[in-house]
Amino acid sequence: MKAALLSEESEIGAIEDEWRAFAELRGCAFVTPEWFRCWSRHRPDSATPLVAAARRADGSLGGVLPLIFDAARRPRAIRFAGAAHGDRFLPAARPEDEVEVAAAAMSALRQAGYGRYMLALNHVDADADWWREMASATRPAAAITEQQRSQMAYLELGAFDDWEAYLASRSRNFRQQVRRFDRALRRQHEVQVRDSTEATLAADISRVFELHLRRWRLHGDSSLAKPQTRSFLRSFAEDAQRRGWLRLRLLEVDGAPVAGFFGWRVGGSYAFYQSGFDPDWAKRKVGFVLLAATVRSALEEGAEEFDMLLGEEEYKTRFTNATRTIETVIVTRPRSPTHALVAGGALARRYGRRLAARPALGSVARAVRRVWPARDS
Q1: What Å distances lie between residue 320 and 36, 287, 336, CA to CA?
Q2: For the chain, which end, N or C, has fewer CB atoms within 10 Å of the first or last residue's CB respectively?
Q3: What's the mean pLDDT in 301-309?
Q4: Range 154-324: architecture per CATH
């Protein structure tokens, strides 16, 4: 395959339908044209779209890497569009084609003069070959820094015929809690699980954000604390609603929303992006009740998997039966100042986590994280 780097609106628009089909095939919202469009609406002037469209010899589209060139920060970097808000990135291509698509994209970047810049690949599958192919195609030979390794839990829904079969696969304690918490809530209150519609979306997503922030005020900073983040996600939710992907749900008790779920279904993957609940209702386990109802809904829809995305909270593993390992990969030139900075940042974060485990050294750990932020924008 050979790839072209697209940056003009007309060029990008011409491949959107095929691009979307590949992203739906992979069940990944973060590499859809809609996610890219939302990034485009909110992007800084210093960021340049570099949508790598790889084509076969017969001219057909083989896959897409929705990349950008971020010149706003130092060091300058090539990264996925919307990397700060996404949980998992991969080529929008058939699994068997992703290595060739990545190689073609890297060749196009080099030919366009971008090969000298840092390649920052946030939240990619740790065992994937495609990003290794990109790194090996770097000239001169690349230095690879792997960091921020995490376990992402998911549920293989295809293993179960129905909800009862799923419950039978879980522990006795889990089964009892699913039934008891829901029954106890309904015994004393009028309970409704409501899906958002186009007419109610604006109010509903504001309520989910509010519930999330109320919960997290008790636990520290939230990823939704910044207005820019909420604006970006609101924009994507609107596009996802139009596509039929959005799964925004509210658990209402006596007519008042007390828990919210923000996710989507893209292709066969039903994803859990954010949630929230009213802390005043924490003892009634309203978050657990809503998540159980949502997993059941995903199963009844015929989704292939329920992806918990980022976050290693214990309640996620209770619902799931598999994990995938993801990490952030930084590709730089060896012995360059950029490589020294990246390697130093990785080392600082590693020791910062160790310091954070010691309360007396917590302020030192926070200072380390301010100097080398763990997440790219």
Answers
A1: 29, 16, 43
A2: C
A3: 97
A4: 3-Layer(aba) Sandwich (3.40)
Exposed e or buried b per residue across 182-199, where buried means at least 16 C-beta atoms within 10 angstroms of its C-beta? beebeeeeebebeebeee
Interatomic CA distance for residues 232 and 202, integer angstroms: 13
- Give me the mean pLDDT over the 60-70 stretch: 97
Residue spans of the domains in the chain: they are: 2-151+325-371, 154-324
Q: Confirm if 134 and 106 have CB atoms less than 8 A apart.
A: yes
Place of tokens 């657990």: 288
Topology, domain 2-151+325-371: Aminopeptidase (3.40.630)
pTM: 0.88
Burial 235-255 (b: 16+ CB within 10 A, else e): bbbbbbbebebbbbbbbbbee
Distances (CA, A) of 104 to 4, 328, 357: 9, 21, 44
- 107/304 Cα distance (integer angstroms): 34
Q: What is the mean pLDDT of the chain?
A: 89
> Would you say the CATH fold of 154-324 matches that of 2-151+325-371?
yes
**Which has the minimum average pLDDT: 137-151, 162-176, 302-316?**
137-151
* Coil vs helix vs strand at 322: strand
- Tens digit of each residue's pLDDT (9 = 90 or more) over 269-301: 999 999 999 999 999 999 999 999 999 999 999
| DSSP structure string for 275-286 | EEE-GGGGGGTH
Question: Can you tell me whether residue 139 is helix, strand or coil?
Answer: coil
Residue 49, classed as helix, strand or coil, is strand
Give the contacts of 184 (CB within 8 A, at least 6 positions apart).
284
Residues contacting residue 69 through CB under 8 Å, at least 6 positions apart: 47, 48, 50, 76, 77, 78, 114, 117
Instruction: Report the candidate in 330, 371, 337 with the shortest Cα–Cα distance to residue 351.
Output: 371
Q: Report pLDDT for 215.
A: 80
Is the Cα dihedral 66, 67, 70, 75 positive or negative? positive
